[in-house]
Design brief:
The chain is of the alpha/beta class. 34% of the residues lie in helices and 13% in strands. The strands form three sheets. The chain has a five-stranded parallel β-sheet with strand order 3-4-5-8-9. Strands 1-2 form a two-stranded antiparallel sheet. It has a two-stranded parallel ribbon with strand order 6-7.
Length: 308
């Protein structure tokens, strides 16, 4: 039997806040919000049960920070884009805090893998005009359909649409939107935010050279591919509510497409993104910026050069 790490149930201080133990609930897609993205009472009860179960930190499902530029990714996905959303999320954060757990809201932008049914006939946006070969999340049980407030009786396989490239002006609007969403998360009572940059979503689409074919300063090299990540880190670092007396946590997930055959370019992009995010967010960044480790000598040497 594997021994339990001795520090697993001990408190941990992050960004000036004490997390009661080192067990965190990972964000899990639920699709239970109202059609307009407002969290419902069942979501409050769901997160309260997890907090009551003993998690030191609860990270919510992926939440869209703005209802524009294709940010929303799923049917019945929660948002934190307006006052109504914020008011409903307050119930969730209060329920989590009632059991002594730290509450983190995950922010995300679907990019090219947004469900076409939430885009009002518009194409999704991405780093470049590309198309994902996958399909949207769906299920075939009436129960899951009902709790997700989906009225359609049928469950067709819905493929992703071809995306269009974000313009330079739009790219900056999206980056600023993350900071605005983070500020609203704090208004809703959350202790911090997590930026979703993995699993094929927008930030990943910029970092991954197989999805980013831009010829401007946001593509074409490892450094350029992570420039968008650096761009959204700046306004996050300047968000006053994230630097309040009770410092807020900014956690960021970055990942590469799979564990095998990772190109050096992708690995350097990931390490470079993590490094720049740490510099720009400073003390507001508590962890964990996650990048798949690269153990080759060349990559270690290159990362050492980036740190210099």
């Amino acid at each position: 039997m594997t021994a339990i790490p001795k520090h697993l149930f001990t408190p941990l201080t992050l960004a000036g806040q004490t997390v009661k133990n080192r067990i965190a609930m990972a964000p899990l897609t639920r699709q239970m919000a109202e059609e307009d993205g407002t969290p419902i009472d069942e979501m409050t009860a769901y997160y309260a049960r997890r907090a009551r179960g003993g998690f030191g930190m609860i990270i919510t499902e992926g939440t869209y920070e703005e209802d524009k530029l294709g940010c929303r990714a799923y049917l019945s996905q929660p948002g934190v884009a307006n006052r109504k959303h914020v008011k409903a999320w307050k119930n969730v954060s209060k329920a989590i805090h009632a059991h002594g757990s730290t509450a983190i809201l995950q922010l995300m932008h679907g990019g090219r893998v947004s469900d076409p049914r939430v885009l009002d006939g518009k194409p999704p946006v991405s780093a470049s005009a590309t198309q994902s070969g996958g399909w949207t999340l769906y299920t075939d049980t009436d129960y899951e359909r009902d709790i997700r407030n989906i009225k359609n009786k049928k469950w067709p396989k819905v493929t992703f649409s071809k995306s269009r490239a974000l313009t330079g002006k739009e790219l900056h609007k999206v980056a600023d939107g993350f900071a605005d969403g983070a500020a609203r998360a704090v208004q809703a009572g959350f202790d911090g935010v997590e930026i979703h940059g993995a699993n094929g979503y927008l930030l990943w689409q910029f970092i991954n050279p197989k999805a980013n074919f831009r010829e401007d300063k946001f593509g074409g090299s490892a450094e350029n591919n992570v420039r968008f990540a650096r761009r959204f880190a700046r306004p996050l670092a300047r968000t006053r509510s994230l630097h309040s007396a009770f410092r807020r946590m900014v956690l960021t997930i970055l990942s590469a497409p799979g564990r095998a055959a990772l190109s050096m370019r992708v690995m350097l992009a990931l390490h470079f993104a993590a490094l720049k995010l740490m510099r720009f967010t400073g003390r507001a960044l508590a962890g964990a910026i996650t990048a798949i480790p690269c153990r080759t000598c060349q990559c270690r040497k290159s990362f050492a050069m980036l740190q210099a």
